[in-house]
Every structure is written in C-alpha cells, then in structure tokens.
TrEMBL record:
Keyword set includes Transcription: yes
An MF annotation (GO) of this entry: DNA-binding transcription factor activity
Keyword terms of this UniProt record: DNA-binding, Transcription, Transcription regulation
Classification via InterPro entries: GntR_C (IPR011711), TF_FadR/GntR_C (IPR008920), Tscrpt_reg_HTH_GntR (IPR000524), WH-like_DNA-bd_sf (IPR036388), WH_DNA-bd_sf (IPR036390)
Organism in which the protein naturally occurs: Leucobacter triazinivorans
Lineage of origin: Bacteria, Bacillati, Actinomycetota, Actinomycetes, Micrococcales
Xref: Gene3D superfamilies: GntR ligand-binding domain-like, Winged helix-like DNA-binding domain superfamily/Winged helix DNA-binding domain
Protein name: GntR family transcriptional regulator
Length: 227
C-alpha cells in the first residue's frame, strides 16, 4: 500500500481525518482484527505524517468506538467479549427504535425509493455470500431510516455501538444459512412497509425484533469471540 506524503496544509486536523478514514475502512472491512496493536510510529511512517495527525486519527477512532487506548500502554483495535457484545445489542435493541421514531415521520418518497433499492442490494449480496456487500448495504439501509432524526447524542451513540460490533457481525454473517438470509430480507421489507403505512409504533417493534434476533444468534457462536 503506497504511503501518502503530508503537505503543510494537511498537518493536524486534515491529515488526522485522512488517516482515520483509511484505518476506519480497514477495521470495518476486517483487514485489522480486534486486538490488533495500533503503533503510532508505524502509522507515521506508513502515511508520511508526523505524530500529531496520527494521534488525532487515533483520538477520532477512539471516539467512534473502533480503537481502545490504555494510558501508558498503547492502542488496539477494539475487541469485545460475548457478554459485552450482548450488552451492546441490548442497548441497540432499546435505543435504535427510539431513533427510528424520531426519523420515521419525516421519511420522503425519495427515502423509500432508496430503502427499497438498498434492501434489494442487501438481498443480492446475501444470496451471493458477499459479506462485505451485505454489511455495507445493510448499514446504509438502517442509517437511511434514521437519517431525519435530529438528536444531540443518540445518533452518535448508535453509530459507535454499530462500530464496536462490526467485526463480530462480519464473522456472524459469514455463518448464515439460506433461511437466515431470507429472514433478514423479510424483516427489511416488513420494516419498509410499516414505515410506508405510517405505523411507526409497529416499525419500532419490527426493528427491535430484528436486532434481538441477531443478539440471540450471536450468543450461539462463542467461537467468534475466541471463547
């Protein structure tokens, strides 16, 4: 992978954002496994940057839940135990329907067209056993349903919760049977229809069940967490 040279105008924030973006992609894509050590000197050499933007990139990723830093020890790609992951999913199960409730009344016809397109892409990726495609389109699908929520903290918190479970969701999706793939497709389509119908309370219930099912299925795969 070619290194990028830092120009004077990129020092600090801009270069830090650029480095964070590259590392974020690698973590979410599964190129960097949970527990991988993040070494500032290696990043500085790789990106042709000083320590300042590297530290800023790590700070950004810590805030997003993708990296964990321990004082006087270093930084690592965040990792979870099975009980920790279950706790995150319990939080999502309760908080994401709330976020959906804020957004749902403001969804437009263009949003529904996009949701239907994304649901089709999720289904196609799933049928092709394209885990990367499934995860990318599935995330975009759900974030689109939340796009009109105007919150001070909830949206950022949910994004962080998604990030912390990303490596385990990737491993779990790779184990799916055709039945589980069809069930996920059905739940997406039911969610779209309840939102279109304006039955927002039912949409929140469908979403909670969608997340709950994943939590229960994950608990059947302790090997994903090294257990």
């Amino acid at each position: 992978m070619a290194a990028h040279t830092e120009s004077p105008g990129q020092r600090g924030g801009d270069a830090g954002e650029r480095i964070a973006e590259r590392l974020r992609e690698e973590i979410l894509r599964g190129d960097l496994d949970p527990g991988t050590r993040i070494r500032q000197e290696e990043l500085a050499e790789r990106f042709g940057a000083s320590r300042v933007p590297v530290r800023e990139a790590i700070r950004i990723l810590v805030h997003e839940g993708l990296v964990t830093t321990v004082a006087n020890s270093g930084s690592w790609v965040s990792r979870l135990t099975l009980p920790e992951c279950e706790e995150v999913y319990l939080m999502r199960e309760r908080l994401e329907p709330l976020l959906l409730g804020f957004s749902a009344p403001h969804l437009t016809e263009d949003d529904f067209t996009r949701l239907e397109s994304l649901a089709a892409r999720v289904s196609e990726a799933s049928a092709a056993a394209d885990v990367d495609g499934f995860l990318r389109f599935d995330r975009e699908f759900h974030l689109t349903t939340y796009a009109h929520a105007r919150t001070q903290q909830l949206g950022d918190l949910i994004s962080k919760l998604w990030n912390t479970t990303a490596p385990y969701r990737r491993a779990y999706v790779a184990t799916w049977s055709p039945e589980l793939r069809r069930l996920a497709d059905d739940e997406h389509n039911i969610l779209i229809q309840t939102l279109r119908d304006g039955d927002f309370q039912e949409a929140e219930r469908v979403l909670a069940g969608h997340i709950r099912r994943t939590r229960r299925q994950l608990s059947k795969h302790p090997e994903i967490f090294g257990a």
